[in-house]
Structures are given as structure tokens and as C-alpha cells.
Request: fold
Amino acid sequence: MTDDNTEAVIRKYALQNAVFFKGAANPKAVVGKVLGENPEYRSRAAEITPLIESIVSEVNRMPLEEQAKALGEIDSSMLTREKKERAYELPELRAAVEGGVVMRIAPGPSGPLHIGHTRVSILNDEYVRRYKGRLIARYEDTNPEKIDPEAYDMIPEDLDWLGVKVHESAVQSDRFEIYYDHTRRLMEMGEAYVCTCDGDDWRKMKEEQRECPCRGLPVETQLERYDRLLSGGYEEGGAVAVVKTDIAHPNPAVRDFVALRVVAHPHPRTGDRYRAYPMMNLSVAIDDHLMGVTHVVRGKDHLNNTLRQEYIFGYFGWKKPEYYHYGLVNIPDAVLKTSLIKEGIRSGEYAGWDDVRTGTVRAMRRRGIRPEAVRRYWVESGIKPVDIQFSWENLYGMNRDAIDDVSNRYFFVADPVRYDIEGVGAIEGRAPLHPDHPERGGRDYRVEGSRTVFISAEDSKAFAAAGLIRLKDLCNLEYGTPAKHAGNDLSVLKRGAKAVQWVGRDGVRAELLMPDGSVQAGLVEPAVLSEKGGTVQFERMGFARLEEVGPGMVRAVFAHR
Ligand code: GLU
Reply:
């Protein structure tokens, strides 16, 4: 016995199977799906199988677009194939309680973010989301010589695009008095000193596990010198405030470290107000404590810094955060150095921070790399301390997963060569906007009049050599001037004919900016003009983001194949 509901269930899966397989559902596959998803039918398999066969053949008589439409009306989510679930998850953090996790990212505002910076941003954001905690963005602008004032605005934009949710922001140049007070307290405790030795001599003495003459001076002398340091009484290089650690520490990098130094260069935010500038280990340790940071996830390059910062936590009796140091990543074939990009912009070599030849977040965004892909890349890379090699190909693969479904397909013809076609009237053809989405409709072609088409210079050469070519989704051509219409039989492909992209007389001028900065000029089919922003796939070339669309021209930026 079957009822309407059983038929509806079968019809749904038959439609889906048909839509996934070019309009032709396979009855066996549908039987498998129906019984697999509805175990209660299994005892009735003998009765249901013929019913499935009859519904499948009914569905297969419908045109693909109607099948897609009918399925869309029943359940539009069934139009897309289920994506494989993410295989990788970050490990739990030690001592992490939901709602009690505070983390931070600490960019230096020297320029916008590049791909290297995205790792720390994504990882900290992922953990804060997981534990429903708070993320602090702390702008570490304590080196006035390395600041680009625009970076204070560009970095939050980059974080926003990455989908990193910042709950609170702080700027270290607002907090100098805090660092000064704490350093004074360290002096009073006898755990810091002002050193006026020559820098090289001081380092050499440390290497030899020897104290410099300043280290042992009485606290009163240190405090006098400290006042002088803060009030501008020393020239650049004339004195530094130093935090004591263990002068005989087995790791020389950990023996006494500089906390404050004199810098004469004006600060873009505070001008000449301060002469004493905190060094990273001082300001980072104080801020991590005062801001209530519970977990620090950062690169292995900070391992020695952690050892230094732990002394400050120890002197003040503060509870240390949980520290994690992930391995270093080598990012090949990318211009990342902020100073180099800046120089390139100044000299006119680069168009701006989003120049596609650079590895900035802005450049990736421009190329149609999606933040989901960047996120997945870093989550899958994990936080293990092993060093890794960055693979652009893997990032591109992840981006392909992210954009393939939303990117409609079009023809782009580079360096177009013209052919007129004889031996036929008007030629009509149709191609889907997206092979997995018949419901989106198609591109309808009608080539008439002189029946002019353009194919790429490269395909034109192949055409001349082979004598036969297929214009994809339109017809076959025999070589000649004009070319001769040669029917529409797909079996020419089996005989080795090349299927090529083409555009008609209504082709639109297009420029495709390539990752090496070169520009491919060509023609695209006019349907591209109806795509606003977003990404498309130029068949046989790759994915691209449409940066400017119309009127009468398209400017696209190449993403990857
Ligand atoms: N501002 C530091 C940097 O950019 C980060 C400090 C930290 O993560 O502790 O390297």
C-alpha cells in the first residue's frame, strides 16, 4: 500500500537525483536514497521499487529546468550538494571556561594586515568565539619610527573583512603613564635599573654573565636617574630602563631586558609629549595583566619574550595567562614586508596597499579570496609548535570550495581573433550559468548576420592547425576564411576537436588583472554585465572578481584557477 506522502518523498529524491545528473535520474540511486533515508520503507521494498521506477521515468521526461524548479519549490536546500563537514577543529585551551576567556591581538600599526598577520587574528577570534569570551585589539604603537598613521584605520577594516569580532580596542600610546608607573615600582622593588652604559658594552657583559656597573647602584640613584630619563634628561642612546632577570640565565636572550628607551622621533599621535618609549616586553606584560588576558596564542617567535614577560608577572605577583606558541610559517612568493610595499607605493611601482602583487589582506580581498577560506586555512593549520610552509595552492583550493557554488560561468576570450561563419543561417545555443544550478537559468546565444565570433589567438592557432574546432555550447566549425559551419554534433570532441570559448559581435571589452600585475585584454560575453560585484568563473581560465562592470566594459581581477 502506498500513499500520497510516499509518492511525494520518492518524487523529491528523484527530482534531486535528476538535477544533480544533468536531468536524468538513476532509478537505482533513487531506490537507495529513499530506503536509506526512510528505514520504515525497507520492509516494503518490493512494493516501492516499481513505484520509484515509474516516478523516475516521469521525472526524467521533464526538462532539467522544470525539474530544478519543482525541486526548489519542495525544498530549495536540496538543490545544492551537501558540503563535507569540516574535518579539523582546534584543540581545547587549558583552563578555559565559557564566558571567562579574554584574548588579544596586538598588531603594530605600521601598515594594513597581510596574510601572515591573519593567522594570529583568526586563531584568537576562533577561540574567543568558542568560549564566548572577549577579544581585545591592542594597537602596539610604541615605536614612533615604524608607524603609518593610516594603519590605525586600515587594520580594523581588515579585521572586519576577515570576520574577526573585536570586543574592545586599546592603543598603547594612550597608556604611557601606566607603563612609567609600573617601571617606577619595579625600580623601587630593586627589580629594575637605569643603565647609561654603551649598549654594546652592556650586551657584551650580559653575554659573559656579568653585571654592568649601573645594575647594582642604590635604589635612590636609580629613581633619580629614572626621573631624568622620563623628563628628557638623556639623549637617544644615553640611557635605558632595564628589567632585571637572572644575569646568569642559561638562555642569554633572557638575561636583563630593556623596558624603556629614549626616542627623539615625534609620535604621530602624541607628538613630542614623551621621550621615553616602552619596549614590547614591558608594555605587553603590563597590558596583558591589566586587561585581564587569560590566554595568549601567538607565534613561536615570541617564546623568549614570554620568558622575559614572566619576570614582570613574577615581580608583581600577578597570575600569568596560559601561553601557546604555534610554529612559524614561511609564506613563499609574496611581498609582505610593510616597508617594501610602502616604498613601492611611494615610488609608483605599486598602485596601493591592495596591489595584487602584494600579500596584503586588501590584495586578497580584491582578488576574490574569501575570508572563510583564509579562516579555514589557519584553523586547519592548527596551533602546534611545528614550523609550516604556507601553500597558496591549498588556500586557492579552499577558496574554490568557498566560491565555486556562487560563481557563475562565462566565456572570456583573450587576444580575440575574428571569424565569420558561412554555410548556415542564425545559430542558436545555450549554456548554463552554473552546471550545478540549472535553476539559475542559462546564457542564450543567437549568432546571426555575418555570424561573427571571436576566439582567443591561442585557440585560433589550434583551429588553423587542426582544421576543426568546437565553439562551446554553439556549434562546430571547419577552418577557413570565412569559417564553415560544421553542425552541432558533440562527437567531434571524441575525435579530438578542441572545445573553445568564444564571444559574438556583442562581446564586451574586458581587462583581467593577473596576480603578477600584467593585464590580459579580451572580450567577455555581455551576460557578465548583469553580474554585480562578486566572483565569476571564466571557463578554462579561472575564477575572477568583477571589480568594475559596465557600461560597455568589464574590469576583473584574477583569483586563481
Ligand atoms: N605587537 C607584537 C607584534 O606585532 C605582538 C606582541 C604579542 O603578541 O605579544 O609582534
Observations:
- The chain has 17 helices and 27 strands.
- The mean pLDDT is 95.
- The radius of gyration is 33 Å.
- Residues 106-108, 140, 280, 284, 298, 302 surround glutamic acid (CB under 6 Å).
